[in-house]
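Deliverable D4.2, example record:
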Amino acid sequence: MTTECNQGWFEFHGLNPRRVIAKFDGGNITSDAGILLLREVEKRTGIIAGLAECFTDHRAPDAIEHTVRELLGQRIYGLGLGYEDLNDHDQLRLDPMLAVAVEKPDPLGENRRKTSDRGKALAGKSTLNRLELTKADATRQERYKKIVMHEEKIDRWMVDVYIDSHPSAPDQIVLDLDATDDTIHGNQEGRFYHGYYGNYCYLPLYIFSGEHLLCARLRRSNIDGAEGAVDELKRIVGQIRQAWPAVKVVIRADSGFCREDLLSWCEQEANGIDYVIGLAKNARLNQEIAEEMKSAEALFMETGQSARVFKDFRYRTRDSWSRERRVVGKAEFMDKGANPRYVVTSLALEGMDARTLYEDFYCARGDMENRIKEQQLDMFADRTSAATMRANQLRLYLSSAAYMLMHALRRLGLKDTDLARAQCQTIRLKLLKIGAQIRVTVRNIWVSLAGAYPYFKVFAEVVRNLQAVPLRC
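Output generated by the structure prediction step:
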């Protein structure tokens, strides 16, 4: 028989002699019970609570049913669970498990003021949308949109989360910079065509330290990819050095960031910052490693395997650089032919030889691309379909907060487990997407998790790991 569908119930192919009938009548059942883990992470990091302090709420206190912290929590947890759209929350507002995570004292919504809202503990899309639509200069006189985002405070908050995640000051940190395309499909503010990416897009700038996200800046794409990087580094490094005065800082980026203003800023004695940055190849550089390339080709012909020979030399551009700098050249020959590559660095030869600097240090920046993929694909950072740049920057901040929460779960909860290196999407599917029945009584909230859940042992390890971390909020 074919599948039959009526409003409210669905009949599928039978399991003889039984009929198979499905209905959405289970009551207080959630498919996202693993959100309890994210709630425990929030209790130990205060990520959402810290972000809420970066907003000013001009609403009348006696008229508020959903605080800023609750609204942000609802959006951020929703992104972590895989719900990218505001429209999703018109149904998600019925989920008592999400209400528990958001800290709603009435998770079933039985005591809402309006009769039409009862049974819906959380905010709907129209209320959540006010976060995005509030203007920077909004006051109490606005009728609805009165929750003002302060970008400068959020920028500081992101770095504060990074600093707070370290029990003590590290000896050295590496800051990775990269830009990527965020495709635009409408007529949003700041819409420009980018020739390299071949589409209309934004060009957000990301700065990571390992897996920690320190900056997510939405930018128009009609700019140089390195534009604004020095300003972002000034505020980030300044804030870090307030907490860790003696920490050594190394900047790492591809050739798109090899600009004189960035290099010379790092080299200023007052800054004391080192860098390892890709350098675009040209005829002069290729001539510099011509002999090494011949050696690499000879090795390839002899072994049939890709061969690399490195050269360390001093180099200065004809016009754009203010001084001579150390450059490492990689003379590589492969099946497809010659593949020369270059990096410029302020690190001394005595501290790191050419091969180590390129293969072990510079190439490690490739892991940042995995973090950007997590941010864009798993946490929906590319969901920038709002009309204004300000609203889309807020969406990028919310995506960043969701990534930071998931990363904290990975760092604190998944250590020494089989999922210690899992990406956000894997964490979501294996640890957050758990079916459960919820029963709310006077003294308890009972969460009956699915008995057939296959990752019980890992879940138990994560709970133990999180419970060993002191509470913060």
